[in-house]
Specification:
Helix content is about 85%, strand content about 0%. It has one domain. The protein is built from six helices and no strands. The two termini are about 25 Å apart. The protein is an all-alpha fold and about 150 residues long. Keywords: Membrane, Transmembrane, Transmembrane helix. This is 50S ribosomal protein L27.
């Protein structure tokens, strides 16, 4: 079960990144170009938040069933913090990615309250960009890409 959930979490991350990058770039280009906010923009922002939240749910399940959880009782928090790999998987990756998802969710929620297209694109651009940078900073690249 663990391997299936881990693989789903890894492959779904490609979709999350692709959609988040598309939504972020779309909003930046349309903000700079002073374009009108349309139904396609709304659907892209909505799809981004949906796939991101699905990734969060899969990640939480993965975290709970992970054999790495035993390290909390074996090493304690001090031991985990001393080991960079354990710290990445058990502390940094989950916390930073949850914070990234909070930014993405805030951006989506705040953009709906804006009245002008420019304000909508600006809000999405800022919050989705912050979320994207945070996500990219805590991806375990060596494990994810098989390096």
């Amino acid at each position: 079960m663990y391997n299936v959930i881990r693989d789903l979490h890894s492959y779904w991350a490609f979709l999350v990144l692709a959609v988040l990058i598309m939504a972020t770039v779309n909003s930046i280009i349309k903000f700079v170009g002073k374009k009108e906010y349309g139904p396609k923009d709304f659907r892209l922002a909505l799809f981004t938040i949906i796939v991101s939240h699905i990734q969060l749910l899969v990640g939480i399940i993965l975290y709970v069933v992970s054999p790495r959880m035993a390290l909390f009782s074996e090493l304690g928090m001090g031991g985990i913090m001393k080991d960079s790999i354990s710290r990445l998987y058990l502390i940094e990756h989950p916390i930073i990615n949850i914070i990234a998802l909070v930014f993405i969710t805030m951006g989506y929620s705040k953009h709906k309250a804006k009245l002008s297209s420019n304000a909508k694109f600006k809000t999405i651009s800022i919050f989705y960009s912050i979320g994207l940078v945070l996500l990219l900073s805590r991806i375990p690249w060596s494990m994810w890409l098989g390096l």
